[in-house]
Amino acid sequence: xxxxxxxxxxxxxxxxxxxxxxxxxxxxxxxxxxxxxxxxxxxxxxxxxxxxxxxxxxxxxxxxxxxxxxxxxxxxxxxxxxxxxxxxxxxxxxxxxxxxxxxxxxxxxxxxxxxx
Amino acid sequence: xxxxxxxxxxxxxxxxxxxxxxxxxxxxxxxxxxxxxxxxxxxxxxxxxxxxxxxxxxxxxxxxxxxxxxxxxxxxxxxxxxxxxxxxxxxxxxxxxxxxxxxxxxxxxxxxxxxxxxxxxxxxxxxxxxxxxxxxxxxxxxxxxxxxxxxxxxxxxxxxxxxxxxxxxxxxxxxxxxxxxxxxxxxxxxxxxxxxxxxxxxxxxxxxxxxxxxxxxxxxxxxxxxxxxxxxxxxxxxxxxxxxxxxxxxxxxxxxxxxxxxxxxxxxx
Lengths: 116, 269
Fold this sequence. Notes:
Chain A is of the alpha+beta class. Helices cover 22% and strands 28% of the residues of chain A.
């Protein structure tokens, strides 16, 4: 009986050793650096990378964000298109819209839920 | 036993009678591929002549398409509206019928919202395309004096020499639109917005050689630039089955056109 218990314990511990924590894609604090009236366009691009959309002579930048519910984190998703050219919103669930003033400082931000 | 035979006979008759195409309407639901935050009456919150383009983007998020001059923003939703089944004998196949809804927001030159157009389109292909906005390549072409040719379906293989580079035969490249003008060769990737510059804008004057490369029955257009860069293109056209196939004549025509624009001595045979 004891030997069976020891065997089971050994197998269980071995399996625990093999297990790895799942890699969570999202970062809960990804957008914490954004502050209206303070954050510059350069800081945004340095932190988030190249935007997926630029409008009105780059006064407006947009990013596509995925959401990881397990840690309530966001992650950047590249613009993906169907074979016919229309973008999909499967991985990206949110659209982050950043509006800058004439001095390239963040004036307004909006996080829009695009896909349920 | 006699009763069982009758049942089998009736079942066979039903099977034979139902052979063909069956369309089953289903309650409309989002396909999961397109956005769901722009629906009918989405424009009610905007005031024509007052609401700005910025306010629309802030409210609805990044658009799905934009015209080159940003006077139009397009948002797309996609619903599953029916299933289709084709059965015959012991074989059956089926799929989904989608309906795309396009909302085209139009703005005046000062960026004020004017109106919204709503259109719909049924299709059996997820993401079915409707040519609503000028594609960047065409707009780019319009900015030149003469558009020599355009093609809406093409692949661009950057730094690949036809079929000769290592792994070239298995490479597909980047999908997009290929455009030739009197002065430039341009390629705009499908993943780009129309208000962005083309992924590739190559002056014809910088091309030192051009040829159509062959591998079995496949063809590719290859251009070498004076910088040492090499670009390969595969031009496609729709086929009768609803798919696409290589357009050999378009690639040869593009090759001939480019050759006519560069010094004859520099054109490869």
